UniProtKB/TrEMBL annotation:
<keyword id="KW-0732">Signal</keyword>
<dbReference type="Pfam" id="PF13714">
    <property type="entry name" value="PEP_mutase"/>
</dbReference>
<feature type="region of interest" description="Disordered">
    <location>
        <begin position="42"/>
        <end position="61"/>
    </location>
</feature>
<dbReference type="InterPro" id="IPR015813">
    <property type="entry name" value="Pyrv/PenolPyrv_kinase-like_dom"/>
</dbReference>
<feature type="signal peptide">
    <location>
        <begin position="1"/>
        <end position="27"/>
    </location>
</feature>
<dbReference type="InterPro" id="IPR018523">
    <property type="entry name" value="Isocitrate_lyase_ph_CS"/>
</dbReference>
<dbReference type="InterPro" id="IPR040442">
    <property type="entry name" value="Pyrv_kinase-like_dom_sf"/>
</dbReference>
<dbReference type="InterPro" id="IPR039556">
    <property type="entry name" value="ICL/PEPM"/>
</dbReference>
<feature type="compositionally biased region" description="Basic and acidic residues">
    <location>
        <begin position="48"/>
        <end position="61"/>
    </location>
</feature>
<dbReference type="GO" id="GO:0003824">
    <property type="term" value="F:catalytic activity"/>
</dbReference>
<protein>
    <recommendedName>
        <fullName>Oxaloacetate acetylhydrolase</fullName>
    </recommendedName>
</protein>
Length: 370
């Protein structure tokens, strides 16, 4: 009987052997797939692919919604209206209340709070990441309050830290009446964009800053029109192609405007505008800096939507104050440097009549005679 069972078992093994072999091959392939390393993916391509699938879209902020109607009294909304409508936005750099008053008096419809100028005027220090968020917010609150309808675009450096700090920066800027800000891709120990030796963070870290800014803006109750400007300093470090790629990704992440720092020629500005269209492009002109001294009309012809003159106020102030101090030192009087401006005339530039009028309307009598 045992020999009969042995024969049957041998026949069964013969019949099942191909099936056993197939299962063993399949198991081996599963094991190999499990231990085989995944195919290598270019990190830059990974970032691009991820962001391609996560393009920011907010129909409420579509530029078409800002094409018509009277200019808003809300500075952020007004800035969006200016961006959506024809004509270049000219924003002179301001550094304090005096320069802001002078810019408004001259008829400018938008102001730019330069980080370099703010650091210089408030601290007497160079633009080397010395000023803090509090310094910038306090300065922005003051200049925005002079005429709350005039949009102020403010420098926000790197956002003053990680995503949580960037979000805090956006919310604080918006709360004090600033219309928009720009955040850059330099390392935290940043410097003026027109100095040498700049270093930039990775694409992904830059995009993290932009995303954090957009998320913070969109979380403001009531629906904020606050404008997010993505700035790259990578052109001088990694080349123009990388700079344009970063700005494209920033736009996809929700940046409303693209700011390429240190563009060196007319041809490069034109090609940048074309590559980023229809996204508005901001150009920063500093006399003696990396970017040629384009005029506002020239920049508009090249396709730029915003032109800022970051140091126009503080450089003029250095020249003016130097001349006044030298004259005082030599002559012993400020008569020539005053140029006929008496104290009341000076205070009138600073809004004297507005304050006196308000006091009288409220029933005050302290300033009947000034």
């Amino acid at each position: 009987m045992s020999s009969l069972f042995q024969g049957l078992w041998a026949s069964l093994r013969f019949i099942l052997s191909p099936v056993t072999w197939l299962f063993s091959v399949a198991a081996t392939e599963d094991i190999l797939r499990a231990i085989e390393p995944p195919p290598k993916i270019n990190p830059a391509q990974k970032v691009a692919d991820n962001d391609e699938n996560k393009k920011y879209h907010n129909p409420r902020l579509d530029p078409k919604n800002y094409l018509t109607g009277p200019l808003s009294l809300n500075p952020a909304t007004r800035l969006r209206q200016l961006l959506a409508r024809p004509g270049i936005i000219v924003a002179p750099g301001i550094c304090d209340g005096i320069s802001a008053r002078c810019a408004i008096e001259a008829g400018f419809e938008c102001l730019y709070q330069s980080g370099a100028a703010t650091t210089a005027s408030r601290m007497g220090q160079p633009d080397l990441a010395i000023a803090t968020l509090n310094d910038f917010v306090e300065a922005g609150e003051m200049v925005s309050s002079i005429d709350p309808t005039v949009p102020v675009i403010a420098d926000a450096d790197t956002g003053f830290g990680g995503p949580a700090n960037v979000a805090r920066t956006v919310k604080q800027y918006a709360q004090v009446g600033i219309a928009g800000l720009h955040i850059e891709d330099q390392v935290q120990t940043k410097r003026c964009g027109h100095l040498m030796g700049k270093q930039v963070v990775s694409r992904e870290e830059f995009l993290t800053r932009i995303r954090a800014a957009v998320i913070a803006r969109d979380s403001i109750p009531g629906g904020s029109d606050f404008v997010i400007i993505g700035r790259t300093d990578s052109a001088q470090v990694l080349g123009m192609e990388e700079a344009i790629t970063r700005l494209r990704l920033a736009a996809d992440a929700g940046a409303d405007v693209c700011f390429i720092e240190g563009v060196k020629t007319e041809e490069l500005l034109r090609s940048t505008v074309a590559a980023l269209a229809p996204k508005p492009v901001l150009v920063n002109v500093i006399s003696g800096g990396l970017t040629p001294s384009f005029t506002t009309s020239e920049a508009e012809t090249m396709g730029a939507k915003i032109i800022i003159f970051s140091l126009v106020s503080c450089v003029a102030m250095v020249h003016g104050v130097r001349a006044a101090m030298k004259s005082l030192k030599i002559t012993g009087t400020d008569f020539s440097s005053a140029k006929g401006m008496d104290p009341k005339s000076f205070f009138e530039v600073m809004g004297l009549d507005e304050v006196v009028t308000l006091d009288a309307k409220a029933g005050g009598t302290a300033f009947k005679l000034v």
